[in-house]
Structure formats: structure tokens, C-alpha cells
Design a protein that fits this description.
Elements lengths: L1 E2 L2 E4 L11 H15 L6 E2 L4 E4 L3 H9 L2
Parallel strand pairs: 1-3, 2-4
Length: 65
């Protein structure tokens, strides 16, 4: 089974750091997928990261466009 990892952080605070919350979430997800390798789980290499967006900020940014 191909598995994708979606990471999310609702503020931009700390995203500029070399290792941030999105990276930690990704590592955790990769570790879990690897633990399920005997069940045929494989992590896709694509990254699905949402950094600094909440429902409120997304709507506000879209409304001002």
C-alpha cells in the first residue's frame, strides 16, 4: 500500500528553522510506515506540507486576492 504523509502547522512561527515541526511530523510518519512494511506499506516520496495556514488565514488570504 502506498502511503502519503500530510503535515500541518497552523502558524509560520519556527518554520524557518533548519528542523521544524513539519519535519518532526514527517519523521514520525515515516517511522510508522516503516513499522508497517511487513504489511506492504510504502511511503511515497512526495511531500504534502501545509505550513502557516489555518482555515481562518486561508479564507482571509483568499478574500483579499
Amino acid at each position: 500500500m502506498r502511503c502519503a504523509i500530510y503535515t500541518r502547522k497552523s502558524t509560520e512561527e519556527g518554520l524557518e528553522q533548519e528542523f521544524n515541526s513539519l519535519d518532526a511530523q514527517r519523521e514520525s510518519g515515516e517511522a510508522y510506515i516503516k513499522s508497517q512494511a511487513s504489511e506492504g506499506w510504502v511511503c511515497v516520496p512526495d511531500r504534502y506540507d501545509d505550513g502557516g495556514f489555518t482555515g481562518g488565514t486561508w479564507i482571509a488570504r483568499r478574500s483579499s486576492a
